[in-house]
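Box 3.1 A note on notation
Throughout this textbook, protein chains are presented in two layers. The first layer is the amino acid sequence; the second is a token string describing backbone geometry. Keep the layers aligned when reading.
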Amino acid sequence: MKSAYKKVLLIIPSKVLARGVEAVLAELGEFRVEGILSDLSHASEVRLRNMDADVIIVDPVVFDYVSRMNVRARLSEYSSAAVVALLTMAMDGEQLKQYDGTIGMYDEPVSMVRKLRESISSREEAADSEGPDLSQREKEILVCVAKGMLNKEIADFYNISIHTVITHRKNITRKTGIKTVAGLTVYALLNNLIDSGSIEL
């Protein structure tokens, strides 16, 4: 059964700002903050992997200037959620292109919720049009599936939750159109992700 609210993960270094966003979203009820990270340290990345968020709201100040151009790539390793920038500083258009949306510190609560809705919708449309290109993590999960590993084994191997593994497998099926393990194994072989010697018979 699908929950009545959308799950939000905040990556905001300011506790005051993070708690303010959490309070605004709680007041309106459509979105609920499930976790708050102050940075992207190793411990935070582990939590990010295990969260099944619908949207990630991130203050771009958590990234240094160089890594601000790779936000999407970095976060997509851990989650397929929509990524929304909380604008606390000036950013150029190129940096903003990698986000599914933006919200400002001075946005009205109703406007913020509308922008979050639009960002999730935009991300879902982009995922539908992405075609069969698998992310690096999806390729890793596909290789494990082709080798005969179970969801729990894959989760333990990558230190992620079973829910995350299932989400990746759903994305792999959606992108490739292949529903069976045998079909996915053939796909992995044909795309040189594995060699025939690494498959359990």
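The chain has two domains: 6-129, 136-198. The two ends are 36 Å apart (CA to CA).
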